[in-house]
Amino acid sequence: xxxxxxxxxxxxxxxxxxxxxxxxxxxxxxxxxxxxxxxxxxxxxxxxxxxxxxxxxxxxxxxxxxxxxxxxxxxxxxxxxxxxxxxxxxxxxxxxxxxxxxxxxxxxxxxxxxxxxxxxxxxxxxxxxxxxxxxxxxxxxxxxxxxxxxxxxxxxxxxxxxxxxxxxxxxxxxxxxxxxxxxxxxxxxxxxxxxxxxxxxxxxxxxxxxxxxxxxxxxxxxxxxxxxxxxxxxxxxxxxxxxxxxxxxxxxxxxxxxxxxxxxxxxxxxxxxxxxxxxxxxxxxxxxxxxxxxxxxxxxxxxxxxxxxxxxxxxxxxxxxxxxxxxxxxxxxxxxxxxxxxxxxxxxxxxxxxxxxxxxxxxxxxxxxxxxxxxxxxxxxxxxxxxxxxxxxxxxxxxxxxxxxxxxxxxxxxxxxxxxxxxxxxx
Length: 427
Ligand SMILES: [Mn+2]
What we know:
Strand content: 5-15%
CATH architecture of the domain at 45-334: Alpha-Beta Barrel
Distance between the termini: 22 Å
Bound molecules: manganese (II) ion
Mean pLDDT: 96
Radius of gyration: 22 Å
Shape: globular
Order of helices and strands: HHEHEHEEHEEHEEHEHEHEHHHHHH
CATH class of the domain at 45-334: Alpha Beta
Helix content: 40-55%
């Protein structure tokens, strides 16, 4: 299925009238605070977030999985789905692949299809958290950290293979997330596990092309429950520093213990030029992988405020992070869920862009705590959705993408094309 521009235009023509008056109202509000709405609209138009190939079907929990119907059964169909999201939002212009779930049969054909849909290849993702059929040694007791050198060698070879696939497709980065850890005190020698992991990563790093980056993702627990080898940002930062200038920390919002001050972690990593990648999701208790902004939109905004401050005060050596949605959809239509996540990300970005930075700095210098809070909350409480609609309108996207998705009956069409019992590859 493809969405055509006349269908988008038709949708937009019905929403235009009420949009114009609400945009004008907001423009006036912002002008009153000396904020240029045009600059924000332009930044919103440029902002693209990668969709991971595994987020297009129903995820599931350890208790079960309920199929959505019409799920993509091949890499080609996954690209097609991201093409649909991108056509509706013009903000999902990249895919993040997972190896071995998404090994392309014909890399050139996949590249061609992606470029027709306006989709780039973002970070690659390796998988040493489960055993594959043809694999000789098991990762049950770890991969890059394993006490057996042959298992480590196998895991390193897999990561090099992931880089090779990425080179063929035009990707420029790879993400390493390790399940490696232990569930019981005494199971693992912490120091040996970390040392083995560093050495394994150094071997992978040696195979990284000059213009590539490697992202190291951390997580405090799960699938193991007592320890994780790369448990927090400090451990990831230590490894990234040891590896070299092409290595960075990756922050996944769901990979923190409850109430962790993630915005401060972001600030510290950007200060050091070591924030390389960012995975969006939301959670109430653990790594719930819920729709971005569905539970804690204020925290998301505070994090974005640090991201924007970091990007606007960065040195050249500090790249803009690779943005990706890393969520799992158990109840909602995955495509609607992703559209909602994109909306939440862009809204938080817009809120962060309208913070009165000079006023905030003055309040901080004067220890005017009340005024600092007023300024921070004012940006969050201003309804900036007309800016998002305007950015979409100018980019040829749907002003109300979820509504357009339903008007176009996308899910039913996908079910007609693919059937009701398909399962997204890799899930
Ligand atoms: Mn992640």
